[in-house]
Amino acid sequence: MPLLADVAVPVPLSQAFTYEVPAALAAEVRPGARVLCEFHRRKLLGVVLAVSERSAAIDPSKIKPLAALVDARPALPAELLAFLQELAAYYFAPIGEVLRLALPAIEREQVRALKAQGELGGVLDLGRAKQVGGRKVAYASATDVVEEPGTLRGQAAAVLALLRANGEQPVARIEERFGNARSALKKLAERNLVTLDEREPPRDPFFRRAEERDVPPELNAAQAEAAARIDAALAALPAPSGGGEHPAIAGQEPRPAGQEPRPSAFLLFGVTGSGKTEVYLRAIKSCLDRGRGALVMVPEIALTPQLVARFRARFGDELAVLHSGLSDADRHAMWASLHVGKVRVAIGARSALFAPVPDLGLILVDEEHDGSFKQEEGVRYHARDMALLRAHRAGAVCVLGSATPSIESVALVRRGKLAELRLPDRAHREASLPEVSLVDLRRFGAGPSGDPLISLPLHRALEKTLAAKEQAILFLNRRGFAPSVVCGSCGTLTTCDACSVALTYHRGRRRDARPPSPGGALAPDAPLDERPEGGRLRCHYCDYAGPLPDRCSSCGARNLLLEGLGTERLEATIAGSFPEARVARLDRDVAGKDRSQAILAKMREGKIDILVGTQMVTKGHDLPNVTLVGVVNADAALGLPDFRASERGFQLLVQVAGRAGRRDRPGRVLIQTRNPEHPAIAFAAAHDVPGFLEREIRDREEVGYPPATRLALLRIDAVDEGVGRGAAAKLAAHARTCPEGVARRVEVLGPSAAPIARLRGRYRFRVLLRARDRGPLRGALAALSGLIRDGLDRNARVIIDVDPVAML
Ligand code: ADP
Ligand code: ZN
Predict the structure, then answer these.
(1) Using CA atoms, how far apart are residues 309 and 158, in angstroms rounded to an integer?
(2) pLDDT category, 629, cuts 50, 70, 90?
């Protein structure tokens, strides 16, 4: 019988293809390895899913041999490969696309080897694979050898002491500190006290400076209890195999059947500033001590340099930091060091989920409630949900951490799937949760600035903060200068041509944020010609940017008004009202690659008095001198047509409030709203997270939304409105008549136009499937996937979004 390989190729099809393994490659072709294979007369890079000796199910003469093997050591370890296949099945996503999420770039050496075999001549498509390789950097590390006492002097002794204290270092970094580093290292290497090796450099900003090792603080009682529970779960894991081949994958059950499993997945529910990070650090240490690797996922790593610094201070450079700012070479170097087991801890955003961490023992998801864990394009996976799945399958421990846990995670606690660990108090002895007051905007008018969104209480609070030489954060959910441009004569809103959304006016002058006239903001209704030049209208949903027209497109009146308050205008208004204050802004418009880190660093150094910004200011920053947080308009997020609007608004409020008073000085939070009775606002003001969760879960149960039910959203779009509507109608009808639909195990809602009915020139429709249980929902989706593949107008695009998050 021939040796056959099932190969996934990077095409949007869900099945794998069968190839014959040539005898010469029989010993080396293993699951997870990349191969070159012929596909419709092109050569594609595929991944072997399985190899077996069997008779082919199709005509043997149609089976082609594999053209070449790319990886001698499988690029995807067994544990990761199995997980990716399960992820693809869960999301009804093409396996080839899913694998691509996890595959590393191809090393130039591999390409050279293939060229030498003559494999890269002719038609070639490496399936968008990137190529890396090149410059190497020298590293020095101390060995275990002990020197003869008194034989080392001067720089040689100092360099050795540095390496012993801080772990290995790039030689270049040692040279910065010691003039004779080269000769000192040579001497040390000759005596076997130091080893030198060459490798691809981490040129990443996170590694630019050496981080001093820290001394772990003593845990408080709640932290100690949480750490002990996680440690016990780690202790219960089987010993690592060392080869990446995990018992769960090899078909053995990790636990004896019938025995009540120990909890191995946790929700770490700790108030802001309660010291969750310290618990993570202990958990990783315990995991490493047991010979296993750990994976840490954080929402937006560019915004968390402080967190990364704390990890580096504890674990040194033995930490792979994965983020979108990495060059291909850096990313590959990180990937490779994990893959060969040289580095055992990876930290990164959503996509770190696919890091080839060796002998995975622990996955941590920090700020697990954060929306950024859901990928909203391509394979629409949720990294938090999949972290639980990967950990479970790998027999690893999973810890989800948050001060404002997601409703989903809380539901898992109630169903006994997650064990809850609580940190009820702030870690710093003197720190307490800030005092929150609501400012009812219906009762308070504009303060001295003249802008109705800067009320008198907020103005006074800012004055007090500045007088005390403390810092303030003002949070506003809208970027740009004015969120809408409206005709003062006929009321027409200026919208994007390609999207059914309002255009935002951006003034876009970054350097000088102060308005032309001191003491006042631009009056919202000032006629156009008094407004500064150079502004642009931008669409926040597509790339459109254009000039501000001088007349209304509908009635022609020269009477366009800039309405509403965005962060740009807020910054200008605050700078005008507090001329002595140093005001800065943090939002996506100013945050280039390193800019956000620079702004946060300035904030930490006390060089900014008032920081104005969007969600970016709410994320986990530990800024000791911030004593005032102002939420300028709490209502902005609560009115969205999305069943999670209330939950998200609540999380934002609690998180941003959590930036205040993190040390000895008490913090204060002002929340401005027209809707003080809204539960998200009332519970946030009372710091009552459990109360909110309780109520929200009850509300969801009543209206039948997750976690009480499960959803799948079919997203349909087309350039032609009729085509889109037609496809949506066909899908909805098919869903209603499939067995699960007929039996009413799956409820079909729609077709309907999406809340944003047009986006980037395409009309959008949707069909929502809802079920009590996952099984029937999967049944219905399976019934629909055939129709989606070849039963609809080719001009309509359909995306299956399982467990959707973005409902707009
Ligand atoms: P969280 O991640 O829960 O918001 P952090 O981990 O940032 O909280 O901790 C808040 C602050 O408390 C940090 O400055 C941290 O160094 C400090 N901290 C944490 N644990 C302890 C402890 N056991 N003793 C003293 N300080 C601690
Ligand atoms: Zn647009």
Answers:
(1) 24
(2) very high
* pLDDT for position 201: 54
Locus of tokens 């999973």: 398
* Token pair belonging to 345: 């801890």
Atom 14, ligand 1: residue with shortest CA distance: 622
Given ligand 1 and candidates 223, 268, 277, 402, which is best to mutate, with the most ligand atoms within 8 Å of its CB? 277
Task: Give the H/E segment covering residue 170.
Answer: strand 169-170
From residue 354, give the alpha-carbon distance in Å to each of 104, 348, 386, 781: 10, 10, 10, 25
**760 CA to middle of ligand 2, Å?**
6
* Separation of CA 347 from chain center: 11
Residue 528 is classified by DSSP as: G
Ligand nearest to the CA of 504: 2
How remote is the CA of residue 509 from the centroid of ligand 2, in Å?
Answer: 22
**Distance separating alpha carbons of residues 314 and 288, to the nearest angstrom:** 12
Return the bridge partners of 114, or none: none
At 409 the three-state DSSP class reads: helix
Residue-wise pLDDT tens digits, 577-618: 999 999 999 998 887 656 888 888 899 999 999 999 998 887
Cis bond before residue 751 (omega within 30° of 0): yes
Q: Which residue has the higher pLDDT, 102 or 200?
A: 102
DSSP string, 711-760: EEEEEEEESSHHHHHHHHHHHHHHHHHSHHHHTTSEEEEEEEEEEEEEET
| 270 CB near ligand 1 (under 6 Å) | yes
Verify cis geometry, omega within 30 degrees of 0, for the bond prior to 676. no
- In this structure, the strands spanning 610-613 and 471-475 are parallel
The pLDDT-based confidence of 71 (bands split at 50, 70, 90) is confident
In ligand 1, the atom with minimum distance to the C-alpha of 277 is 6
Phi, psi (degrees; rounded to nearest 5) at 497: -70, -30
Whether 123 has a pLDDT exceeding 70, the answer reads: no
Can you spell out the DSSP letters for 336-349?
Answer: HHHHTTS--EEEES
CA–centroid distance, 47 to ligand 2, in Å, is 38
Provide the whole-model pTM: 0.83
Residues ≥6 apart with Cβ < 8 Å to 420: 266, 267, 269, 413
Task: Please tell me whether residue 172 adopts helix, strand or coil conformation.
Answer: helix
CA–CA distance from 104 to each of 15, 132, 348, 634 (Å)? 22, 10, 15, 43
31: β partners = none
Q: Specify the residue with its C-alpha closest to ligand 1, atom 24.
A: 217
By the CB criterion, residues less than 5 angstroms from ion ligand 2 are 496, 498-499, 539, 541-542, 544
Closest to 297 measured CA to CA, from 406, 421, 358, 384: 384
Nearest to 588 by CA among 521, 534, 538: 538
Centre of ligand 2 from the C-alpha of residue 804, in Å: 22
> In this structure, are residues 295 and 355 in contact, taking their beta carbons and an 8 Å threshold?
yes
Place of tokens 């944003």: 756
Task: Specify whether the CB–CB gap between 47 and 6 falls below 8 A.
Answer: no
Tell me the C-alpha distance between 99 and 31, whole Å. 12
For ligand 1, is residue 277 a contact (CB within 6 Å)? Answer: yes
Which protein residue has the closest C-alpha to ligand 1 atom 27?
A: 427
Structure tokens at 386: 């999949």
**Tokens for 110?**
């591999």
Total residue count of the chain as it appears in this document: 808
Going by their DSSP bridges, the two strands 583-586 and 610-613 should be labelled as: parallel
Q: Which atom of ligand 1 is nearest to the CA of 219?
A: 23
770 contact partners, CB below 8 Å, separation of at least 6: 704, 709, 710, 711, 746, 747, 749, 777
The residues pairing with 768 across neighbouring beta strands, listed in sequence order, are 713, 749
708 close to 770: Cβ distance less than 8 angstroms: no
Spatial strand order of the sheet with 710-718 comes to 746-759, 762-771, 710-718, 797-802
Q: Report helix, strand or coil for 384.
A: helix
